[in-house]
Amino acid sequence: KPAYAKLWGRGEDGSEFTAYITKLPTRLGRGGEIEPSADFIVLGNAKGISRHHATIDWVPTKNCFCIICHSKNGMIVHQEYFGKDSKVYLSSKSALKILDVSVYFLLADNNTEEADGEDILKE
């Protein structure tokens, strides 16, 4: 299935993390009782990651994606801290950090079905 975007980077244990956003809105959160699905991406199992930590959605009036924080633990976007109920607009290669998970938000290339971030993490 074609993806709108991809999250690519390092998971909570330092291993490579890749997830595709194929349905909007998509929730990001802690695993456990909630199974991963088309609209839910498990970021990890650490208690500092809320079950429903953030949501990524499309904003038609701005013609871009955004991430909304739902957790009191907050998130870091573009190297800036945002607390609960913050809404941050995303562009391709936006850097996101939720607890120990550090990923890039990568828009899908018009010519392929998935986003490609190989170039930015080699730096």
Automatic annotation (TrEMBL):
Q: What region holds the FHA domain?
A: 26-82
A matching Pfam family: FHA
Q: Which domain of life is it from?
A: Eukaryota
Protein name per the record: FHA domain-containing protein
Species, as recorded: Fibrocapsa japonica
Native organism taxonomy? Eukaryota, Sar, Stramenopiles, Ochrophyta, Raphidophyceae
